[in-house]
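User:
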Amino acid sequence: VDTAFPRHKSGVRVLSAPIEGMDLSEITTSEMFLLVGTLRSLFTHMVVNVCGLPTLDVIELLIGNANQVIFTVDQSITSCRAGLDFVARLKGIGVPIANPMVLIDHYHPRISPDSKAIARSFGMEQFVELPVAADVRLRAMNIGQLLFELAPQDPLTRKYREWAHLLDKTSVGDQKKVVAAPSFLDKFKAGLKGK
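Assistant: Predicted structure:
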């Protein structure tokens, strides 16, 4: 882990897919299952960006086994429609969506639709608005500094703290639920043993 994962000074480690030399469509669900299981044994929290993953089987495995699923959109009709289509597709194939939340990025409070309307359209109670804050985002990227260090009182930084608090509450609550019913991962394991 120390040599394979680039590590930020905050403690966050990143495992990214290589740009060249590996076809993600060749990864089987059982290989992804093993990877997820290994990563869960090594890290307390795992964040997986499923955008651009080539096969629905892999996305189904990751989302169906997540403690929380966050759908990121902006206020544009096209972004919301794409997000709603994705949610409908997951529900259509029976993928369980644990503790869903809508993250509205680059949020403009004076422009419609507002955050409550977007969350309602997704049928979700939890949502977080991340303000535009283009100058702070750009400075943080260019300097390579955390927003919490660069602009601790900025509205964007405060919203990140609020989001982290929501995620932490959900994570603690979800640990109690895991014991109650078999997860998608348990069903997947049982399916592998049955073969």
